[in-house]
Specification:
Fumarate Reductase Cytochrome B subunit; two-stranded antiparallel ribbon; about 280 residues; 2 domains; 10 helices; mainly alpha
C-alpha cells in the first residue's frame, strides 16, 4: 500500500511540468539591431569625414583635394540621413530617455574613472536595458548630440553652399567671409575627435578589456558576478516555490500522502510491520 502511494506520487511529479525558464542567463540583450547598425555606421562616417576633412585643409594627402572634397560631401549627406533616421528611432522607441541627465552617482563615476579603475574597484553603476549609460556618459552624449553634432552639420552645410550662387541668402546671417564658418567647423571637428579618443579608451573599462566592444557587436552584455549571483538566488527561490506547489498538489490528489509525510521513520516502519 505504501509503495503504491509513493509510486503514484512520482507519477504525479512527472506529469507536472517544471518551468523551463528557471536557468539564470549569463547575458542580457542590451543593444538592438538598429542601435548597433547606427553606432558602427556613424563611427565609420565620422572617421571618413575626418580623413577627407583633414585633406581638404591640406593637413594630409591621400585621395587628392578634388576627390576628397567630393567624398566629403557624399559622406556628409549620408551622415545627415543617418541622423534623421536615428532621431526617428530614438523618439518612436523611447530610447531618447537614455540621455536624460542625472547627477545621481556622478561623483562616484568620476572617482571610478580617475582612481577606482586603477585599483580594480567595482563599477559604481550597473548597465541595464532601461539604463544603458552611466551619469557621466549621459551628460557627455547629450552634449554631443545637442551641441557638437549640430554645430558640425550646420557649419558644414554653410561651408558647402557658401560659394554657390545663393542670391544673398548667406549675407542675411551677417557672414561676410567663409573664415568664421571654417573655424567653427574645425573646432567642432576637433571636439568630435577628442570624444572619439576618450570613447576608445573607455571601451576598455568594462568588466573585461573587450566586453564593451563585444556587447556593441553582438548586442549582449555579460552579467556581473554579483548580478549573476542575484539571478541564481532568485532562481532557487522560484524552484523552491514550484516544488512546494507540486507537493501541495500531490498531497491533495494522493490519499494518505500527507499522513505519511508527517510520520517519523520509526512510525512508518511500524505501519509497514502492521501491514
Amino acid at each position: 500500500m505504501v509503495q503504491s502511494e509513493f509510486s503514484l506520487q512520482e507519477k504525479k511529479r512527472k506529469r507536472i511540468k517544471m518551468p523551463n525558464n528557471l536557468k539564470s542567463p549569463k547575458q542580457i540583450y542590451i543593444y538592438k539591431s538598429f542601435e548597433r547598425f547606427w553606432h558602427w555606421t556613424q563611427a565609420a562616417l565620422i572617421f571618413f569625414l575626418a580623413l577627407t576633412g583633414f585633406e581638404i585643409h591640406g593637413s594630409i594627402s591621400f585621395f587628392g583635394y578634388k576627390n576628397a572634397a567630393n567624398y566629403h560631401i557624399i559622406a556628409a549627406y549620408t551622415f545627415i540621413t543617418l541622423i534623421i533616421f536615428a532621431i526617428f528611432w530614438h523618439f518612436t522607441t523611447g530610447e531618447w530617455k537614455q540621455y536624460l541627465p542625472t547627477l545621481k552617482n556622478i561623483r562616484a563615476q568620476i572617482d571610478f574613472y580617475l582612481i577606482g579603475i586603477f585599483r580594480n574597484a567595482p563599477h559604481p553603476t550597473k548597465r541595464t536595458i532601461l539604463s544603458k549609460l552611466n551619469p557621466l556618459q549621459r551628460l557627455v552624449y547629450l552634449g554631443l548630440k545637442l551641441l557638437v553634432i549640430p554645430i558640425m552639420v550646420v557649419s558644414g552645410l554653410l561651408y558647402m553652399f557658401y560659394r554657390y550662387p545663393q542670391k544673398g541668402s548667406i549675407r542675411v546671417l551677417n557672414i561676410e567671409s567663409i573664415e568664421p564658418i571654417a573655424l567653427l567647423h574645425t573646432i567642432g571637428a576637433f571636439l568630435l575627435i577628442a570624444f572619439i579618443i576618450a570613447h576608445l579608451y573607455l571601451i576598455t573599462t568594462g568588466r573585461t578589456l573587450t566586453s564593451n566592444l563585444k556587447a556593441m557587436i553582438t548586442g549582449f552584455e555579460d552579467m556581473e558576478e554579483e548580478e549573476e549571483s542575484n539571478e541564481n538566488n532568485a532562481k532557487v527561490q522560484v524552484q523552491v516555490q514550484v516544488q512546494e506547489q507540486v507537493q501541495v498538489q500531490v498531497q491533495e490528489e494522493v490519499p494518505g500522502f500527507s499522513r505519511l509525510n508527517r510520520d517519523s521513520p520509526g512510525q512508518a516502519s511500524q505501519t509497514n510491520n502492521k501491514k
